[in-house]
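Researcher: Going back to the complex we discussed earlier. I've cleaned up the inputs and rechecked each line, so this should be the final set. Can you rerun the prediction on the complete assembly and write out the structure?
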Amino acid sequence: MRIFGSNEMAADVIQRGLCVGCGACVDICPYFRSYRGRTAMLFPCTLPKGKCHAFCPRAEVDLDELSLQFFGLSYGDNPLGTYISVKAARGIYPVQNASFQAGGTVSVLAWLALKNRHIEVAVLTDREGLLPVPRLVTDPDDVFSCASSKYTAAPTLSAFNKAVREGYKRIGVVATPCQVIGLAQRRLNPMAESDFMDCASLVIGLFCTWAVDFRSFEPYISGRFAVEGIKKMDIPPPPAQVMEVYLEKGKAELPLNDIRGFIPAGCSYCWDMTAEFSDLSVGALEGRPDMNTLIIRTERGQQLVWQALKHGYLQVEELPVENLEHLAEAAKNKKKRGLMKLKEDGLFNTDDPAEHACLRMMPEVAEKIIT
Amino acid sequence: MRCLLRYLSGRRHYKKGKSLIMGVGKLPREPFNVIVTGVGGQGSVMLSRVLANMLVMEGFRVTVGETFGASQRGGSVMSHLRISEAYTWSPQIPKGCADIIVALEPIEVIRILPSYINKNVLVLSNTRPIYPVGVIAGESSYPSLEEIKKCVERLVCKAWFIDATDEAVKMGNSILGNIVLLGALSALEALPLRRSFFRDVISEMVTEDNVSLNLAVYDRGVELIKQDFDFRV
Amino acid sequence: MSYLTDTTEGVQHLLMGNEAIARGALEAGISVASGYPGTPSSEIIENLARVASPGNLYVEWSTNEKVALEVSAAASFAGLRALCVMKQNGVNVASDFLLHLASSGTRGGIVLVPCDDPGALSSVNEGESRYFARLLEIPLLEPADFQEAKDMVKWAFELSEAIKNVVMVRSVTRLSHASGNVIFGALPVSKRLPAFKYHGSLLDPDCGPIISLLPGMPESKHTPQQGKIREAAQLFEQTPFNAYEGPKNPELLIVACSVASLYGREAIHLLGLESRVGILKVGTTWPLPQQFLKKNLSKTKEVLFIEEVFPFLEEQVKILAAEGVSEIGMKVFYGKHSGHIPSVGELNPDIIIDALSKLLGLKYRAVPKSLAGKVEEATKACVVPPRELSFCPGCPHRASYWSIHNALELDGREGFVCGDIGCYTLGMLACGFNAVKTLHSMGSGTGIASGFGKLKPFGLKQPVLAVCGDSTFFHTAMPALVNAIHHQSPFTLVILDNRGTAMTGFQSHPGLPVNAMGEEMPAIAIDEICRAMGASVEIKDPFDVEETQISLNRLMESQYGVHVLILRQACALSPERKTGKKYEMLVDEAVCVGENCGCNRLCTRIFRCPGLVWNKEKASARIDEVICAGCGVCSDICPAGAITRREKV
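Model: Rerun complete. Updated structure for the full complex:
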């Protein structure tokens, strides 16, 4: 990984519109702060190399380096990344009124990890109105208040940074793909800190096709509904082409084309739909609104799933083949779009040392994905 | 201490024409020019006022030119004293015409020296640096006291560096560094400065209970220079 | 008892130019003095306020210069003598009333003293007040030294009463803020009784109503006004304030006014030109004493003008010389027009030496070449770091701008601050994190912000902030704020309320419970005024940087109406804070992240409070105990918690 400083980070990522506001650079120094969904650089820092750049999921990410670190093999062309198995899953927990997205798998797994002390703290994303707010949760029952999708890009990793600073050693994170990449970058110990410790004991990734920019989304929504009354939001699979907003009384539908207008530019460079560097990745299951797709990627992820199964907190089924195919197809399409966009903008595998890349991977693998 | 008169007897280097004013007796040169320099907030204005008033009591005509206002906010400040037997001189000392430079802050000597230097100039400086914000910020660097001393001593007739602020802190108030310097200046005997006039002037400017402290601090300044002379002898 | 009221005639004191002006006014027996603070003029009113007493002398810091002149004019209308004082810019503010006052005429002697600031040493402009004298047709005097400052002011009152009009006495920084020996004259004892006489006819100058002009009848007032100017010119022929010094027929005649005459003399002396160059010091620069000038211009063919800022005297004399060419012959003129004297910046003896050397073919080196070489050599090894302006240690403005800067960056829509006049003007520099992006006259930040706010319907997306100080608020920000509220211009006005007119030395203003003379007065609450006007108002302590930033961000997000955020914290140099530190500050070197990633010297590199020092050896920040004012803000900005504060007991 090539590492530069905050000025390169500001020029290459923020000014070029690649920033997704994940919070990887926030709360590690006084210079980067997140406010209303956007990351701001308050003052220039003169250091030639900094954690801000090193942790950024949009600056000099080397997929081989990550893949070797976490899976022990080079980055391949499977659109779903490396995994042990893919299942259909549903969380079972006797909580009334909890608002889950689909099967509630994520909430239950995070709850269990906290409950059985696998992790000391969970980094989750809550919302205030429509503003996503990262939270550190230590009481297992508090997990459920953070459940359900946010759709607005969130600086979740700033809470992870805070947890590390506060001295937590076993931290669980529920994160979107870009956030999982940022976290993975951090877990490489790129700044070669002598007292480094990988505190990310559990990483649950969320499937993501895109998020929306809070600052433009908020006025759109608040112009239509009282934001406090929104219970939950959902984007049902195609061909619905709507965003569903669940209110106190009933449900409203918004045209997806409107919502797409709020997608930040940074999402168009994204190549990861299923959070490939997580322990477990969870998303919707096509045709089964009560279930999730669960990708088990690591041993420790599998351990947690077994425990959940053992105690009856999780119900798992085999994933139908066509669902897996559809998922892979969607993931491949996103990867292809992201890589093409990166290539177009000269942000992929740059050869000129003066040019900084957003992403690096073996050209032949990239070629396979694109064609 | 008499040897000092040697420093002061030199003529100014400029061409002597039919002068408007002739020096008479009490001053080594007409006019005699003192620059008091420092950083805003150090009390250089106070120092130059007290000094000027002492000289007025002695019977001189004194003009004091001062820069303050915006420069008070952490900037360099400078007072120009023109001391004359009978004449009001301009509030700005012409370049190359300083007789004594009194500095509340050491680097300020070098800031003004290139403009006001001549071969007879004497320097009396505090040793305590006040770092410019650019230095604090790491944008520029501040020479060591040794470097400053070496530079000044190479250039001027005679220089004294005293720990005026440190002495003042020891005696109770850092701001009195200016009075330590004034006492020291009187001990150079380059100008006729009487302790009794200092008492009169300072009594008008500070509360009654502060007069004795000011006098003690003034005396400490005198002592610092006397020690220096004794050491040299 | 101040030496300013020393009744011993003939006694000598060292007076600052401003004190000399004050003494001159006292010797003239003034009853009223008014002004608005502004460097370099402030000490005049301050000194008069110290010696004020009921029924004897009333002194006030007025809300602004126009009001100050109106207050003084009232005293004149009632037959008393009054002095009105302001810095140069103030004359612009007062000029609307001044135009009418000059037309209406006056009764008791009234003198307007503007203090100009050539070189803009303490100003954000290099304006001139002298042109107002010509423009508005009132006499102008320019003292050249301290004695003259006193004597001229005293005489100006006589002149004012002789011609029944206001007289201007212009000072400059190098006179106002310099000191010299002044021999005192007598202090009058007799007192006038004020009475405003208005029973005479409309145009009766002594007993009629006092009005500017009868509409459509300029001759009603303008004709007598010009008569007054001719009368003044006649009186100027005889004054000792105009004098020639030098040989009978000099090769070159210097025509100078104000302190430039001292620079001229100094230059003549240093170059030894006493037998070749003469100097004509003109103290009455408008209207010119024609005969006196013609007589002196006849002495020679070549003339050099030295004066500060604009070629005011130069142009007047040239007109006079052109008109009188048959009497005095052809002249060659040097000065600002010829380029021998710079047209920007203040003068000094060296500039005049240069001009004279050029004109007379002399070679003069202030520092001999050999010595200059030695200096260059020695200073190479000892480079002097620049000493840029900064906020004082513990200044509330640093904390305010910290929050403002951070709020603007977090907001991320390229918001900006419309600046104003005061210490907080420095907000355009690094010490204010470069937050201020426009800077003009008193109160104009609010007016400009009011205008920016109305550009939103055109598509301006940037949030707009304005700053103004507590004194500036009363001076001229109030009308701009009324305008903004009435027109519903969306912006946030941040009032940096540091409890006094701090920049010029803590003069009182209407927001404080005291007047210039130290008497108890009702304080007018800024927050109540703003609320009554219709703005939403919040008050915060700028030392609470986080709260302040949160408020600012919330206010900036509002799309409608004017919001006022009052950041209230006394100036670090104020009497209430100067006496002691609130906190003892400490840096834990073991905790300080220093130059490493995660901090990179935020406190010393960015926050830049002079009370913080970077300790290179220990790679840690350090508190300079002598400089630190103990405000505690640095402990809040330290990301590592290395700076701690302990409440002082």
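Model: Worth noting: Residues 1-24 of chain B have pLDDT under 50 and may be disordered.
Researcher: Good, that matches what I expected from the previous run.
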